[in-house]
Each structure stands twice: as C-alpha cells, then as structure tokens.
Amino acid sequence: MSVQLERLVPEHIRKFETYIPSKPDRELMKLFGCSRLFRLNNNENPLGPPPASQEIMKKFPPSRASLYPSGDSYYMRMRLGEKFGLHPDQFLFGNGANEAIAFVIKAFCQEGDNIVTADKTFAVYEWVAQFSGFEARLVPLRGFAFDDEAMLGNIDRRTKIAFVCNPNNPTGTYWSKERLCRFLDAVAGRLIVVVDEAYFEFVEEEDYPNAMELLTAYPNLVVFRTFSKMYGLAGLRIGYLAGSLEAVSIIRRTCVVYSVNAVAQEAALAAMDDEEHIPRTRAIVRDEKGFLVEEAARLGIEVQAGEGCYVMMKLPMSDTLAYRKLMSRGVMVRSMTAFRFPNWIRVSIGTHEAMEAVIESLRSILGREEGV
Amino acid sequence: MSVSGRKVSLKSVLDEAFLPMVLSFAEESVRAFGFGPAEVNRMRLASEEVFLYLCRIGTVGQPCEIEVSNGVYYVKARFLFDTVAFDPYVLNFTARIVPDEKGLENLGLLIASRSVDQFYIQRDLKEGLGFVLLKEKIYENAAEAVSADAPPALGGFTVESPDSAMIKRFARSVCRSYDETFFPSRYRCPAKVADMAASGDYHAIVATGGGGAPASAGRAPEGRVKRVARDIGGGLLWRPVGKGMVEFFGPYIFDTLQGKKIAAGLADHFLGQVAKTNATFAATSYATPDLPAGYFELLGEIEYRLPGGGVRPCPFFYRQLHEDMGSQVWSHPDLVPFLRARYDGLVLPREILTSTWEGERRDAHSALTVRFDRSARTARLRPAWDGEDAARNIADHVRVLTDEGFANIFFEMDLGQPWQCLMTPALLENGFAPALLLPDAGDGDVVVLQLNDPALGKGNAET
User: Fold this and answer.
1) Residue B179 phi/psi, 5° resolution?
2) A32: contact with B, CB 8 A cutoff
C-alpha cells in the first residue's frame, strides 16, 4: 500500500526545521576521535545537583517506578507557595520549562494570532509558536538586549503573548525592574507577558527584578523557572510557571498532567532546601567566567559576557567549523548560527579544567598566542 | 485536466493516439502562462519527443500524467509515469544507441534536450519516475544594453529585501561590476532576476543607504508608502536546492569604500535568514572576491572547460548551518584515500564503511539520469540503478555527451546510498576521477567525479 503521508502534513509543519539533539558522548567521541569530552553546550551546572537531591536519586526505591507520580507535582506546589507567599494553584509544573512554553501558547493562541519576542534569544518560543501555526514576530536585539520599545511597536490586536528572556540566553543581558515594569505598564494587560527566568538564580545584580514579586500587580504576567540550570537537574526534566490564579487556571486546561516523574519531583523538593548550593555555584561561575573572559581577551577574541552561566565569543571563522575543530579536541560548545549569531559560539561555564581546555583549544584552532 | 495555482495537469495514457491531445495541452498551457511563441514551440517539440518515447518503451494504456507549471521565469513540463512495467535500461538517455550507430538524429530524448534549457529524469519516491523539461523565458533586454547606477558611497546602510524595481537596479549594477565568472550568464538580465525573486525560487537582499530614508521608513498621511530612491551598496542572492542546500551568489559590492562592512552585513543577514530553515548548509561556486573572510570554508576547485579552449578554475565555498553530529558514509575502497584526505581537511567526523561487488546477484542493466545545462556545456550524471553493464552504460553516456559538445561532464555519487559506490570501478575505468566533496548534499555526503579531458590530462580531479 502506498501512503503519501506528506499530503496529510499542514503547510506550517512542512516548512519546519527538525531539531536534532546531539548524539550521546560515546558516539561523538568515536566519530570525532577524541578521548575526552567537555560538554559546554547546554549551560548545565558543573557542580551537578545539590547533595540532598543526589541522595534522593540514590535511594529512590525501584519498586516505586511502577507507580504514577503526583500528577500535578502537589508537594512542589505547596513548597513553592510557602517560599514565594503565593497560592499553590499559582504554579504549574512541566517536563522542563520547555513544556510550559507550549502550555501557554496553546492556552492563549488561536488561528491568526501572533507572539512577540526577540530574534536572537532562546529559540523555543519561536519554535513552538511556528510549529503550532502561529506567527512569531521577531524583534532585533538592540545592543545585545531585548528592545522594549520595538517589541511594543510590534504588538497588535492579534498579539497574545510577549516572551522576554531575562537574563537573555545567549547574550546575558537583562531588563532592570524599572524597565520590566515600564514594559508591563505599557502593555496594560492587553496580552500575556512571559518572563523566562531560567537563569534567575545566577544573577546577583541589585537592579535585576524578581518577577515573582510582580505577579500580584500584573495578573497578565507569567514567570518561568527551571531546575535544569542552577539546581543541576536537567536530566530529570522539571520546570514550572507561575502566574495569577486566573492565568494559571486557564493555562492548566492545556497542561499535560503526570509529565513530571517522581524522582524529579522529590529531587527538586530537596534541592530547594539546600542553602549552600546556590552560593557555591555562583562562586564557581563567577571565577571561571572571569578566567574565560580574561583569557579570551588575551587571544584577541571579542566576548559578550553578561549574566548567566555562559559567555559568547565571536570567532574569525565559521562557528560551525569552530564547533567541529573544538569537538575534535574534546570541547563541545554551542555554535550560534542557529541563534542568528553567525561566527559566534556560546560556551557554558564549567570546571576550571574544562575552561582551560576551551582556551587551549581556541588558541590551537586560531593559531594564536597571547596578545594577537 | 486540473488546475492548481501555477500548475495544470492532464491525466492520459501511453498511446500515440493521444499525442495531439497531449501536445495541445502542453502548448496551450505554456501559452496560457504567458510565454511567447518561441517557448511554446520548443516545449511542444520537446513534449512530442518525450511522449512518443514513452509510448515506445511503455505498455499501451499505461497511465501517464503530464504536468505543466509556471515558474514565472521558466515553464516546466513533467511527464510522470509508473515504473512497474519498465526495464531501468530504457530510462537511460542513451537507451536507443547501439555501438555502431553513427548519427544521433533519431534519438528522441536527445532532440528533446536540445529544445529546452534543462532536461532530466526525476526519480522520486513519492511521485515515481518522470521526464522533466524546463524552458526558461526569453527576455529581450540584456543587462549590458541598459545603463546602471553610478557606483555609490552609502555612508550608513541597512540590509533589506528589495522590491522588483530595486532588484532590477541591483542586477544592472552586478552586470556592470562583475563578469560571468561571478554571476551566471543566464542571470544577466535584470527583468529575469526580478522574475526569479517573484517566483519564490530565489531570494535577494540588498544593502541600501543614502538618498534619504528607506522606502518603508514611513507613510504619507493618506497611507501611501513614501518612495525615496536609495543607493544600493551591494547585495546577495540565494535559492534552496534539494532538501538541505542553499546555493548563494555573491556578495556583490558596489560601494567599495566600505565593502568589507557591507559584505559582512550581507553575510550575517543571509545566514540569519536561512539559519532556521531546513537547509543544512550554504554553498556557492560563484563567490566574489568580496566574500567576507572567516565565514565560509573552501571545499575545493573544479576546472570548467571553456568553449575557446582552456579552463576556468571554479572554487566552491560552503558553510554548515548546524552543528555536524557526525555520520557514516559508504565508499568503494578506491575512493577512500580521496575521502579521508577531504574529511581530515574539513574536520568532518565521518566513519567510512567500504563496500564492493563480490559476485552477488546484480541487475543486468544500470540506469543513469542526466541534467543538461547547455549554456554552460555541462552535464551532470546521477546513478538511478546499479547494474552489471555500468561500465558500458557510462561509456555510452560519455560518448553521446561528448559528441553533443558537453565539455564538462560530472558524476554525482551519494555516499548515503551504499549501492551507488558499486559504480566506482566503472567510473574510474571510464576516465572519471573524484574532484569535489559536498557534505550533506544528498542522503549523505556527495562526491562529484569529473570526466578527465584526455587532451588536458587529468585536470584537477584527484584520486
């Protein structure tokens, strides 16, 4: 039987680019002929999860794997309610914050609607909107930062959501509390404003806003947080959104329940009680980012280093070529052409050994000594 | 007959009795799409040869669909048919040739190929087999005959997608500033370039500045767009090819004072436009000296033989748009040294799996498809089926194509298809040698083998 499946595919899916994740380390090392691999492409925490979370994973009874987890991450929501002084129903969990992006878009967008975000930011806002059949209006960054005025200029009656990545991945720039509030005031409740705070815990600047504190004042505000970055639980996939009771109640209608596994829920709960983990991570990120920026400057490499656990570097060669050359030396970074930053790479902050490997490899592939 | 946008189709059967109907359909379709008598006549002639050929090699009554589409700057006819009743041999362009045949006049497919600009056999899993005829629109105004803008000095510039009028100005400036080495001869007509963009097959960006605000910068009170002439400091063209490639042309720079800045701006904008498409790499064989340093990798050079003798070296540049995750490729052992050298040079992670014919059952007949580009005297062969007669079949193709005046004959082998590498010995035996590696250009990487010119020795191809 001949079945022409392509005829069944909607037009917006036909045009869509497939995202292909990287292969497992063992396969990559074999193909690139390297004996080590520093994964510095996904902004993971070099310290891993907090010790208490690690204990949860070690002691998780295998027999419990046959039971469904809490379908709506009950204890996590209770704990977050206490922590932020909000109602537990103001939180909604997903299999990573990526899933929460899909919840929000599905909840508020219908045919003909659009979303507004930046052209050079976390790609999943644009990605989910487009494969769902909605227009993604991409506003160019201004000076590596989200351009609030231009975003407002792109909003029309069919704009349902504005996504603001704060701090921005990959540039590390952020809106101050004053700027964010000014934007929310200008939006005046006409649409949902999502503030993605995936890297919230890494930022130490005083004027950096905690959007959780703005939820009462702005019922159209939705905040994303994740346990994948600071809390080192990327492999367990757990993230959440927070918003007003009314907004979350609407979003919950599109939420996939039972999508967060039991180990993830318990490990995340334990992670929140670890008071040492954040300062320890901040210290290593601060130190190693400083080292990386300084050494890159010695090599004459332009660097964009803001907040977050990553920096961008502009290379005098194609970033996809640099990716291959670095991979052959056991260093995996993110090439940035797909972020619309041709010839830039993004390097996640890792251990000192990994950062030294980055610099040594860059020196080698660029054929440079210090000060060139 | 069905009509869908710029495409019309006719379902017929293979029977010479339906020839008048098929020809009438082809002729009237081309005419209805707005093409002139020259294009109509040539498509009619080519369609006649193809349909008669199909009637001869097929079974009477077998379904055949004829589809004519309007590409704005070209018209295309496809003759789609079922493969079940065909011996792959008859799909060869040379199928009717016998070794002692002197003249080629009776070869229907050859006549068809002479009448149009492109002719090839498609083999598509979804649509089946088909003969494809493509005739480009004939434009009266050659670019050389019209004046171009004076070289500009922009000052500040922005990169934008041009409208039709600006594309024509851009094309004139290209023709004035660059020779055919950097801009294909068939594109040297401004109206044609505008139509190429209008068709959606090609995309263009230009760097503009001076002359006041951008045309789109504001609106008059009554809502009309303000029209302000702006200088064009440079531009770049591209088109998607196949499932993963973007071919680009340029960048063309007219404002030489800030050429490097404009070139980098165009490259950044172009890459930003294609980065999130299905394309996996961008490549060009028409790079200009203004190609910004550090953006593209040199894949190699191919030497094109020129009509007056001599050769034109043609460098190929490319750039991946995504991170290369590594893959396996299939190769005959004879190609491994070439591949290993190229993969090492390009730092491409590839595991080479070798395959040879070891006496297992093999189809009697091989089949090759051919793409003709008569203006460039170039023919590109691709394998459609492997068979025991591969060496003879390749030799037949070389003989016919050489007699037809094709000086540049290439064979494109997809390393993602293990059966294709079985043809390697037959190719080497017939004077082909590997010349270029195109990463990810097919199901896997593609090796381009070039026929050596006996008069010129080995050329630049290497083993």
Assistant:
1) -90, -175
2) yes
Half-sphere exposure of A101 (CA within 13 A, CB side): 25
Domain span holding position A257:
51-272
Report the pLDDT averaged over residues B43-71: 90
The CATH number covering residue B195 comes to: 3.40.630.30
Q: What is the ipTM of this complex?
A: 0.86
pLDDT in tens, B300-320: 999 988 877 888 889 999 999
The last residue of one of the domains, among A241, A272, A303, is A272
As beta bridge partners, residue A218 has none
A31 has a chain B CB within 8 A of its CB: yes
The interface residues of chain B toward chain A in range 336-395, judged by CB-CB distance below 8 A, are: 346-351
Using a CB-CB distance cutoff of 8 angstroms, which residues of chain A are in contact with residue B275?
Answer: 337-340, 342
Domain count, chain A: 2
CATH number for the domain spanning A20: value is 3.90.1150.10
Tens digits of residue pLDDT in B346-402: 999 999 999 998 888 888 888 888 887 777 788 999 998 888 888 999 999 999 899
- pLDDT tens across A261-291, in order? 999 999 999 999 999 999 999 999 999 999 9
Domain CATH code at residue B111: 3.30.565.10
Torsion of CA B460, B461, B462, B463, to 10 degrees: -160
Q: Can you name the residues that pair with A351 across neighbouring β-strands?
A: none
Cβ(B61)–Cβ(B13) below 8 Å: yes
Q: Is residue B57 part of a domain?
A: yes
